[in-house]
Each structure stands twice: as structure tokens, then as C-alpha cells.
Write a structure and sequence with these properties.
- The protein is an alpha/beta fold.
- Helix content is 23%, strand content 26%.
- Strands 3, 4, 5, 8, 9, 16 and 17 form a 7-stranded mixed beta sheet that branches.
- α4 packs across α5.
- Bound molecules: zinc ion (2 copies).
Amino acid sequence: MRAMVLEQPRPAEESPLQPKEIPEPTPGVGEIRVRVRVCGVCHTDLHIVQGELPMHKLPVVPGHQVVGIVDAVGTGARGFKEGDRAGVIWLHSTDGTCEYCRRNSENLCVNAKFTGYDVNGGYTESVIVRADFAYHIPPSFSDESAAPLLCAGVIGYRSLKLSGVSKSERLGLYGFGASAHIVLQIARHMGCEVCVFTRAAAHRELAKKLGAAWVGDAKDRPPRELDAAIVFAPAGPIVLDALRALRKGGIVALAGITMTPIPEMEYSLIYGERMVRSVANSTRQDARELLELAADIPVRTAVTLYPLEDANRALSDMKHSHIEGAGVLRVSE
Ligand SMILES: [Zn+2]
Ligand SMILES: [Zn+2]
């Protein structure tokens, strides 16, 4: 089957992914095989192909926002049958027994495996997933509109929860890619006033269209102090910008898997019980809640489609903020 394979990390502009033929996998006990229709492109994929995260598996097929159709069911796999639509996300599996799993924090599992990082992901025609780590996609979403929900949406949703923002409070979003454009809609649904900090003109336009009350640069001060902020941009200095805009007792949640160093700061920036916390992966419960909420609101995702073979171009476009909303690879009809 066709696949875009990473053999050696390098900058996105230098086409790190190579088109290859790889064998079609067979589902084992408790697993299903999903014939990939679309796969979303995520910033984490960009960090993987560029070698900005420690490599876990090489060669590897990236991609962890898969929507497809179940075409084989392994022994003992429950909840899906052939022909069902299924979603595959970043959290591929956990051990279910470690200290964190027992604390209901499976997102922090010490033996967690991740799709498109520890095991092959969705930049290809078929993926294997444990049935208990796969998701039913609400029927109101098309394949391509659902794909960005599976990581951009789920991680954004967890970040929103961890930011502690309440109904009708003021939320700041630093960076405005796939995740932020979904979070903005959920926050608006909660009655929050949303301030968006981004440079790209197209991103500012989309933010306004989706109901942002104010848009500006990361360095700008919003009209009033923020109750909470989420930093999507992987740039450490922005954490300090967000703290400067935050009220006492507010939380800055960091949504990215990696970030450039956070500069040294005056204690006064964080004094007043301000908090900074990161967001790591998601639980299955987060994913189920987000999919249900997204269908209820309903969230509208802005999507740019690329053929599978153009995965390098999609990653490079995302890196340079040339995609409005989310990039999605079309693998099959
Ligand atoms: Zn565990
Ligand atoms: Zn992701």
C-alpha cells in the first residue's frame, strides 16, 4: 500500500517524507484495521519529521488524526464491525496498570504509545488500532471536517479545561492554527469573550469571522486582563507575553508538545497566584467528550485538503502559517 514514510528527519521544506510501498498490516487480538480516507496534519507531525522530538521508531509513517472505514476486525475486538466509520487519535495505547493509569490520568501513562510516533500512523492507506482506543465519529461530520477534531480538537479541548476558564470569562489564544480555531468556537459556545494573538492576516480574518472579540500581536495588551490563556505557538517568549496579559489567579495552559526555552522572568510576572501548566496528550474520555460537544455546538472546521503524496507540502505550509484552520490529507474516497 502507498505510504509517506519518514526515514531521516530533516526540515519540512526538504521533503523529509518519501513515497514508498509498505505491506498492509493485519489486526491482532483486540485490534481493528481502518482503511484511511483522510488524515489530519498536526504540529506534532511537523516536530517528528524535523527531528525536534526524540525519535522512537524509524522508519515511521506519521499521522494521528485518521478517519476511515473498518475493513478487518481482530479476535475479541469489541465496539466496531466491518463498514463502521472510525477515528484514530494520538494516544495509541496505555498499559492500564501504572500509577498514572490508576490515578485516572492515562494521558500520562509511563508506557503510553503514540500513533505515528511509536507505531505507524495515517499517512498511508491502512492503520491498525486497538478497538478500545478507536472512536465513533458523529454522523453530522464529513470525513475531512472530522479529522481536525481528533487531535487539534481533543488537545484544544483538554487545554481549555486545564486553563480553568469559566462561562463568560475572557480567554486569550496565542497562535491561531487548527487547534485554536476549534477552541475559539467552544469558548464562544461557553459565552467566553475571546482575544486572539496572531500575526498572519488570514488567521486574524478567520478569528474575527469565528467570533473573536479582539485580535492583535502576542506583544499587544488586550483591552482588559485575561482570565485564562492558551499558548499554541511553540515559542517560549510568548509564555511571558501571556503572563503579562493575565489577571491574578489566572492560568496559562501550554498546548504544544515542545517549545523553545522559556526566558528567565521577574517573579512579579507570576506572583499573584498566576499559574503556568502544560498539557500532555489526552485521555479517551477527553476524546469522547470533545466529539460529542463538537457535534452539539456544532463546530465548523476550516480545512485545506492535500493529496497524500503532497504531505511534505502540507507540513511545510503549516510550518509557515499558510493554512487557514487545518490541513488534511485525502488518502482514499
Ligand atoms: Zn499506564
Ligand atoms: Zn496532534
